[in-house]
Amino acid sequence: xxxxxxxxxxxxxxxxxxxxxxxxxxxxxxxxxxxxxxxxxxxxxxxxxxxxxxxxxxxxxxxxxxxxxxxxxxxxxxxxxxxxxxxxxxxxxxxxxxxxxxxxxxxxxxxxxxxxxxxxxxxxxxxxxxxxxxxxxxxxxxxxxxxxxxxxxxxxxxxxxxxxxxxxxxxxxxxxxxxxxxxxxxxxxxxxxxxxxxxxxxxxxxxxxxxxxxxxxxxxxxxxxxxxxxxxxxxxxxxxxxxxxxxxxxxxxxxxxxxxxxxxxxxxxxxxxxxxxxxxxxxxxxxxxxxxxxxxxxxxxxxxxxxxxxxxxxxxxxxxxxxxxxxxxxxxxxxxxxxxxxxxxxxxxxxxxxxxxxxxxxxxxxxxxxxxxxxxxxxxxxxxxxxxxxxxxxxxxxxxxxxxxxxxxxxxxxxxxxxxxxxxxxxxxxxxxxxxxxxxxxxxxxxxxxxxxxx
Length: 455
What we know:
The protein is built from twelve helices and 17 strands.
């Protein structure tokens, strides 16, 4: 990938000539919260994740998938196929004028649902506007707990929960019921499952002994991180079992990924005896390198490992092709679809990724955006810093005297930066938002319980 001299920039999917099966496949897109690539056993973790490991063995594992450093910008990019400089203007929100994966699915005549962590706007009608027929969501109109005694809302209203209810189970069961209810319909279905796990607070799951005592369910401890990862794996396993039970494997694509790196206070033990500290919120590899596993029985060959470069803008054109929806007339789609990779076909050529990253967290937070372009070995920031991200994972030693190969790579990465240096309109909106926040002041926001904060 790195010795190619030509720069091939993103193009749109133009035709709908590829048909993957006699019927359109069902699609289940699962997004774990705060899960870096090091959390899964199939990528070397010492954690026990047998269901996802098996999914990788039976399907395809991608070694180079990249998100944004935090959840909100990642979700905006994932849902729209556009880099953040085009439409990310406020934390936890995607403006209603955007078209999402849900809208794409509806255009392709799919029935749709979303369950889990929303973070795309506090409005009960927003899920419907973004193309989802049914929803079961935490963080729609209010924050509340996500784990024990969760605040979850469906299209029928807020669910009445108690301390015996576990938010991830409620959303998982909603997905399972949706799949079963739609299994015999003539229409294919699309499930977007942005899981609440494994985001902090790090709390007991129903599988840990502490769950048996109600007051201990709310006491945070880093040791629960492992159990939360393993519970994530268990919930994914239930979906796999349901698909197999209903004989849907041959016509269902399952995609699993994470929205950003693992939280920084966690050191994940690896099989080789080392530990990897999470880098959530940082633009280095630990903050943006996430797992991606794809399973589609009889379509994806078992045990495949892809070295293709994937970022979150690529999911939109990928699913457009699978939904058989023509997006050639849509403007500013930055991603390059990887449906051909799933099919084992050649021809996809994405050599570089771009990122416009702006945290937009709270008043007085950092307001300077970061721009960088990268491939699987090198990263260039718009201030001229070049890193070898394989030898220098944490980006501590910028290359000051690049050799001839590195000079050529730097030129190509600079072309990518130049192409996407168009974020002025978005930055003006950001400034306006920041000014409004400063006028309102803190308004007691810092007194919220930790469980209600979502960074």
